[in-house]
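User: Structure please.
Assistant: Input sequence and predicted structure:
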Amino acid sequence: MANKTSPHILNTSANLLGFCLFVITSLQISDKMEADYIDEFTCIIAIILTFSCIFSFISIRTSKPKREELLETIADYFFMIALLGILIVIILITFNFL
């Protein structure tokens, strides 16, 4: 597989993780009680993105092709779950469900 997507997943996951941490910090500083659920969802998404970064990084560093492919696939799944979580948070904020 030769690490076709792992560097991209790692870079994008790390950037989104930074954005999630920025959102969490902003919500903590503003001390808004309504944003409590958004804060919790964002924390969960940040954890999922962290796992995506870890698996992607290990995939890049491994020398075994089978393990590389497995780790890259796991990183892909974590990344897609995190993207869906971000989409859900955006929809909830947009339609004022939270």
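The helical segments are 6-30, 36-61, 65-94.
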